[in-house]
Each structure stands twice: as structure tokens, then as C-alpha cells.
Amino acid sequence: MSARLGGSQPGTNQLNIVVGITGGIAAYKAVGVIRALILAGHDVHVVATDAALRFVGKPTLEAISRNTVDTDLYEGVAQVRHVAIGQAADLIVIAPATANTIAKLAAGLADDLLGNTVLASKAPVVIAPAMHTEMWQNPATVANIMTLRSRGVTVVGPGVGQLTGTDSGPGRMVEPDEIVSAALAVRRPQDFEGRRIVVTAGGTREALDPVRYIGNRSSGKQGIAIALAAAARGADVTLVGANLEVAAPASVHVQHVVTTLELADAVDAASQNADIVIMAAAVADYRPESIAESKIKKETQGDRLSLELVKNPDILTGLARSRRPGQIIVGFAAETEPDDAALLELGRAKVQRKGSDYLLVNRVGWNEGFATDGNSVVMLDGRGDIVMEASGSKSAVADKLLDVLARA
Ligand code: PMT
Q1: Same-domain status, 126 and 152
Q2: Same domain for 155 and 293?
Q3: Which of 30, 83, 277, 327 can bridge 120 by disulfide, Cβ–Cβ 3.0-4.6 Å?
Q4: Distance 217 CA to ligand 1 centre (A)
Q5: Rounded to an integer, what distance in angstroms lies between the CA atom of residue 396 and that of residue 296?
Q6: Is 191 part of a structural domain of the chain?
Q7: Ligand 1, residues 271, 279, 311, 315: which to mutate, most atoms within 8 A of Cβ?
Q8: Residue 215, ligand 1, Cβ within 6 A
């Protein structure tokens, strides 16, 4: 076996993950799966079927996975590659998994490198089906999925939505972050089992008139990453999403809101039974005093337009004041301060003002924090002491935050 196929690194959390890609249009999204696994620090080996390479190019997969891509059963025969890849794997993720591949896996066929890899492996297998609704609901596919589940294969999705053509329905591959989260969950401790967690994500919008609003650039990625990670670790998660720019995961309860007042109501209701509330949403501090009934016209306003804004309730402060014994309240502090020491001081002042148990100080700017895939945070406890620092993907930040809460 070649050195590059060696299993997980002893003493690290790095896993040797095989990503199998099969021939469906969703193959382009596999690039996002690989990228997220790499960002989370894992070693990724792609095994693509010939059909997959009709949808996504080998150079792309090699550049993103940082490893050569295996496709051919008859390459590397001297290294017994058809079994070596599977034997060395800690985890196999097949995304997308077509109806054809699912049928072959259920039958235990090994007529290509991916089939051999799965058969030769003792690693957990996670598949993300992607196909048209009729194929997904066909009794053959239904039976094949039951067979795979009964053998311990984890099936993520499919989601419901727009398919390749004009039709929509069940069969769409779920988003890469959800696949990655579910895949890593099969090897994760279920340390939040039985705990109820509320996470807010996204940015609230305050209407000016029927067509305009005041808002912010939060995409919801950080909050969604926390919700996904918590669900993957066994928590019962409610995600309160404000104008999310990425798809909400299927593994959590989702409540969509638009304004700060709606967010406040949703969090108030959801937090009644929650053990932990995590406020990752970017919340508008002010809203227009009144909302115009019709579009504000420049013809009637002249050269200047003044807006009267009124203060929104501070949801985090309210949660901290009314929390039940044992309930943990976590906030984020989005700050543009460039100096590290001054940034920390802003965080310390904010955690004391808001009264939360923890606060993640998050430097933000034109190109950081908001809407990016990565993040960098310093987590303070209620006294202002640093309890965790994390940089990397938003999923990695989410897990480090949960590691602290698991010990709290
Ligand atoms: O969604 P992404 O694109 O992934 O970006 C993630 C993020 C940068 C938005 C996120 O990591 C983050 O920092 N969220 C907090 C943004 C924010 O509103 O920060 P703040 O410093 O203004 O507020 C401090 C805390 O009070 C936050 O937990 C906020 O949710 C809460 N708050 C703020 C105002 C208000 N009226 N009520 C509140 O509860």
C-alpha cells in the first residue's frame, strides 16, 4: 500500500476519508464536500466513477482534494489498489450516490473501483442520494435503501426541491455542509444527546417600505454550522433563521423569521424548553419608526432623506436576565476593531453588559466574518476570561464552541 493511503494520523483527529463520486449532475457539489472535509483537517482520497468525470473534471477534484484521484480498477494493480483504498479508509462518503450506484452497493457488486473500495472496507459508509423523484420512489430504490440502512449505511437526504429539469420534489442531493456534518457525525461522540439547543443564524431585516429594508451581510453560515454540528452530536436543535442565504439543514427544526421583533418572539418561544441558546444571528439594533405603505419616491423626498430609527429590544440581554437555572446563554460579538487587545476589551465589556455565560468575539469586516466560509473567534466566559480560540472553517469553529459547552 502506498504511504499516501495510510490511515488516520495517530494522536490527531485527522481521518483518512474516501469520497466516492458517481455520475449525476450533483457531482459538481461534491467539490464542496471535499473542500469542507479538507478545511476540517482531514485527508481526502477521491474515487470517481467514469460517469462522475463526465460531470466534474479530474483536475478540479485533484486540486481541491490535494491528492491524485483514483478512477480505474486496473491502475496501481501492483499496490493492490482495488482493496488498499478501502482498507485504509476511516470513513467512506459517496456523494452524489445515483440510483445505479445504490443498486450496485445493495447487491454488493464490484465492477468498478468504487464498488471494490466499499466491499474491501470496514469503515462506516455514508451516502447522499441524488436522483429524480420517480427514481427515488421506485420500489427497487426503496428496497435498496432499506437494504443499505439495515447494513448500517448512513443515508443523508435526499432533500426536496428543484431537480435538474423543471420538475421539483424529493431527490435533490442535500447541501455539502449537511453531508459533511452527517458523515463526521458517524464518528462523533453523541455528547449532546437529550439536550435541546436553540441557535439563531442570519441577519435580520427592517423594512422601510414594501420594497426596501435595512439589513446586514450575515449569510447564516456560522449559525447553520453550529446547528448542524450540535445535531450531529445528538442535540435536538431548533434553528431560528433570519433571511438565510444558504439552505437550512433537514436535520434540525427550522423557523424562518425576517425582522428583529420576529426573531425575538421565535427565540422567546423556543428558549422556554432549551438547555442552551446560541445567538449567532446578526441582529439589527434599530428599526424604522414607521414603515411606508408604498414605495418611497425620490420625487417627493428631494435631495435628502432622513430616517427616524427606534431601538430594537436586546434579545441576548433579555435571555441572560430571564434564564432558568442551568440554562446556558451564548452570544457572539461582531466587531471591526483591528487591534487584537482592543478587540478583546470590547468583547469583555460586551459580555459584562449583556450578561451571557459566554461570548464569541468575532472580528468582522468587508472580507471576514460575514458570508465567508472560514471564521476566527475568541470565546470568553462571563468573567471575560478566554476559554477557547478557534480559526478555520465555520464547522470547525462550531465544534470547538460545542466542545466548551459539553464541559460546561
Ligand atoms: O452568518 P455568517 O455570514 O456566517 O456570519 C456570521 C456572523 C459574523 C454574523 C456571526 O459569527 C456573528 O458574529 N454574529 C453576531 C452578530 C452581531 O449581531 O453581533 P453584535 O455584536 O451586534 O451583537 C452581540 C450579540 O447580541 C449577538 O449575539 C447578537 O445576536 C445579540 N443581539 C444584538 C442586538 C440585538 N438587538 N439583540 C441581540 O440579541
Answers
A1: yes
A2: no
A3: 83
A4: 11
A5: 44
A6: no
A7: 279
A8: no
Tens-digit pLDDT profile for residues 208-234: 999 999 999 999 999 999 998 999 888
| Within a domain: 295 | yes
pLDDT at 2 (0 to 100): 36
Is a pLDDT exceeding 60 seen at residue 93? yes
| CA angle 184–362–256, rounded 5-degree value | 65
Give, using CA atoms, the residue closest to atom 26 of ligand 1. 316
pLDDT class of 70 with cuts at 50, 70, 90: confident
- Last residue of one domain, picked from the residues 128, 160, 185: 185
Catalytic residues: 216
Residue 317 Cα to ligand 1 midpoint, Å, equals: 12
**In angstroms, what is the C-alpha Rg of the chain?**
24
The residue assigned the cell 490527531 is: 12
Phi and psi at residue 96, to the nearest 5°: -80, 155
CATH assignment at residue 352: 3.40.50.10300
The backbone region for 5, taken as left when phi is positive above 0, alpha when psi lies in -120 to 50, beta otherwise, is alpha
Domain span at residue 365 reads 196-407
In the chain, the number of structural domains is 2
Domain identity same for 220 and 240:
yes
State yes or no: pLDDT of 397 exceeds 70. yes
pLDDT computed for residue 77 by the predictor: 75
**Mean residue pLDDT across the chain:** 93
Within 10 angstroms of residue 369's Cβ, the number of other Cβ atoms is 23
Q: Are residues 201 and 326 in the same domain?
A: yes
251 lines ligand 1 (CB under 6 A): no
pLDDT digits (tens, 9 = 90+) for 264-284: 999 999 999 999 999 999 999
pLDDT given for residue 16 in this prediction: 96
* 271 C-beta closer than 6 A to ligand 1: no
Q: What percent of the chain shows pLDDT beyond 90? A: 81
